[in-house]
Model the fold of this input.
Amino acid sequence: MKRITNYFLLILIAGLILSCKTKIAEDTSPKITESYSDSWRFHAGEGTDSAWFDTKFDDKNWQEVTSQKLLKDQDISLDNGFGWYRKTIQLSDSLQQGIKNKGGLVLHLGRLAACDEVYFNGQPVGKTGEFPQNYMGYFDNERNYLITSDKVNYGGDNLIAIKFHDGWNVGGFLEGAKLSVSTAETNDKILLDVAVADSDYIFLGENPIQITAKIENKNNWDIDGKLIVTLTTDDYQPVKSDSLNISIEGLKNYSKSFELANPQPGFYRYTVQLKRNNEIVTEKKFNVGYEPEKIQSPIDAKTDFKEFWDNNLKELAKVAPNYKLTLKPEYSQHGYDMYLVEMYSFGNELIRGYYAKPQKEGKHPVIVEYMGYGSSPYPANQWWDGFAYFVLSVRGQALNQPTNRFGKWITYGLDNKDDYYYRGAFMDVVRALDFVSSRPEIDSDKITVRGGSQGGALSFVAASLDKRVKVAAPNIPFLSDYPDYFKIAPWPKSDFDEYMKAHPEAKWEDVYNLLSYFDIKNLAQWIECPLIMGIGVQDNVCPPHINFAAYNQVKSKKRWMAFPHHAHSVGKEYNDAAMAFIKETLNFKDQ
Done:
C-alpha cells in the first residue's frame, strides 16, 4: 500500500512540474502608438555638473524649440557642440494598459545628429555613439529605445531628457523629427549583441577570425527564428554564410560562435541577423581585420612620378610666400598669441592658416596640422603645452573657402595632372613647412605633422615630400589606393561617377592613371621619419584597407592603433599615444 501511495505521489508531483512549465502564449494584441507635439525645452551645453536628466530639475527657464527644424534654423547655437532637450509626456489609459500587458514601451525620437544619451524618468535608457573626448563617428539614423515597464510612471508625468553632441552645430533633432511612443512588441524585446574574439577586431597570427552571436529574449514567451551570419570581403565579395533555425525560451538567452580559419589578409564585413517569419527582427553589421600589414596593394607609380614631384617642388620654390601675420586677440590665450597667416603658394595662390606663437622665449618644437576635407576653420591649440602650432587651410577650403574656385575639389582638373586640384594642394602642404621653418621662435629640427582624414593624407604627403618633417601622426588617412577604394566605399566614388557622366569623353583608365600621381600609397615609400597611424575599424569613408595601403609602404619606424567601434574617427587613446610618440621622437621635455 505504501508503494502505491508513493507511486501516485510521484505522478502528482510530475503533473505539477509539467503544469508549471505550461508555455505562455505570445501577446498578439494590437500595437498601441501615441504621438506627441514637436515642442521641447532646450539648453546649450554639456551639463557636466548639473542634474539636467533629473525629474526634480526645473527647466522652466529653458528655451522652447521645435524638433521640426534644425536648431541653426531657429537661430540657436550649441556650446562646443553640446546641448540638451527635455520634455514631459503623459500616457493615455489604453497605452498604459498596453505597456503593462507587453512589458515595456519603445521611445521613437526620430532622426538625431551625431551622438546622444537618453534618459527616461531620470534613468539612462539608451545611447548612440560616444561623446568627445572619445568621439565615435557621426550617426544620423532614427533613434528607437526600448524602455521596460518598471521605469514607467503610470498615471503621472514621464520625463524624456536627451544629452547630445553635434560638432557641425546643426542639431540635435534633424528636420522633421517627431516623438511617438508605442507598446513594446515581441520583436522589440529581442536583443542581439555580437562579441568579437579580438579586442581591437584585428586578428593576427594563426588565430581564426571568431565571433559569438548573443540573443536575449526579453519576452515572457518562447520565440523561434533563423540566425543568419554572412561574411564578405570589404569590397563585398562573398566569403561564407551560415544559417540555422533557433528557439529561445521566454526570458532566456542564446549564443553561438562562428569562425573563419586561414583568412586572406584584409578587412571583412559581417552581417548578423535574426529573422522571424522572413522579417529581419534585429541586425548587426561590423568590420573586422586580419593581418592588415600583409595587405597587397602594390605601388603603381608611373616612371616619371619622382620627376613630377621634384619639378613641382622647384616651381613652388620660385613663388615668394610674402608671409603676412595678423594678430587675433580673441584666440590669444593661455601662453599663445594667435595669428591669421596669409601667404602665397604654388601657382601664386593665396592660402591661409592659424598660427599659435608661444609667448615664452626660446626655440620651440612645432606641430603642423592639416585639416579634413571641407572642414570649417578652427584656430590652433590655445592651451600651453610647450609646442608652437600651425593649422593650414589648403587652397579653396576652410579659411580659403570664400574665394574657392576649385568646385568639388577632388574632381577639379581631372583631365590633366598638371591642372588637378591636389597638385597645388600638396604644394600648399609644403608651403606650411616653409612658413614654420621661417619663424625665429621655431626649432626647425623639431617639426611634426598630424591630421585626420584629408589631414591624415596630407600628413603622409608632408613626410614624403619634405625631410624637414621629423615625425608624422596621421589618422584615418584619405586619398589612397583609388582602384580598391572605389570598390569599398560609396564616396568619393560618387563624385567621380558624377564627373564621368558630365564628361562622356573621359575614360576610367585615364582617371586612374592621373590619380596614381596623387595616391599617398605611392608617395609613402619616401617617408623616412617615424610615423604613428590611427584607424577606425568601422570607417566606410576612409576604410582601413586604404589606410594600410599607404602605411605598408612606409619603411621607417612605425606603429598603428585600431579602434574597433569607431567609424570615421579615432579614440582619445590615439591622441594621447600620438603626443607621447611625438615627444619621445623629438626628445621633448615637458615645459
